[in-house]
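Reopening: structure tokens for the 2'-deoxycytidine-5'-monophosphate complex, inputs below.
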Amino acid sequence: MGTTLLTQVIVVKAIAIDGPAASGKSTVGFKVGRSLDYVFFDTGVMYRAVAWAILERGISSADSEAVGRVAGELPISVSAPSREESDGRQATIQVGEKDVTWSIRSPQVDSIVSVVAANRQVRRELSRKQRLIGLKHGSGAGGKAGVVMAGRDIGTVVLPEAPLKIYLEAPLGERSRRRYREITERGKEADLATILDDMRLRDQIDSERAVAPLRSAPDAHQIQTQDKTVQEVVGLILALAAEVLGAGAVSTGDIDIPHEGSQGIQ
Ligand code: DC
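Re-run output (same inputs, fresh job):
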């Protein structure tokens, strides 16, 4: 009924991938994007950039008004890494001219980002920008055939018209081990028990917040990633994408994140 009609009328080539921390969204989403030659956009980097900026400016995450203001004015940009930036990054994240790709992954950012992401004003600012990005790239206006967006509320709030919605799941223990491996593989020290405790807390804040909590959209395909390889999960999503969206392939490009005073999509 209505859903079929809607996807025919609103031609947005978008795949929404939601799920808790370390459920595989960015690993899988990046590969799906590459296979289809769709833009991949991990929306969590924007919440992380705001968290990083308030730490830099000495603003408390509890000062909701000040944090909301930062979200409104921060010039965040996401671009495909250049050849010189081949250090394992999926994208280069900048705040103004500053490359914050790795600093937004620090334990300090980790410890406040869920609180920042629960801020009403921050969500209003960032999800509006994310929606514009999704619509732009989903309509092909960004030079690619479509967009894969990963986050917590893409299928429910940011781009509910995405014809294909995926919700990735994995048990907390498994997700903590993945995060531990990611950190140690980058040559950093990590403690598994601390990661597990922090992740449990962040899951709780992300799922219990009043605005846009972590939820599977009712029409999302739920995929349990624990007993599957990355390639198996990618294969499942590609099969669904072929069925729902058809395949697509165009060029490469950067993501413009609109901010006040920018030339972005308003
Ligand atoms: O996926 P991640 O760990 O990089 O996300 C960082 C934080 O941002 C996490 O607390 C969840 C939040 N987030 C969100 O609330 N909505 C999104 N669309 C993406 C991330």
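The radius of gyration is 18 Å. Residues 14-42+108-243 form a domain with the Rossmann fold fold (CATH 3.40.50.300). Marking as resolved unless the reporter disagrees.
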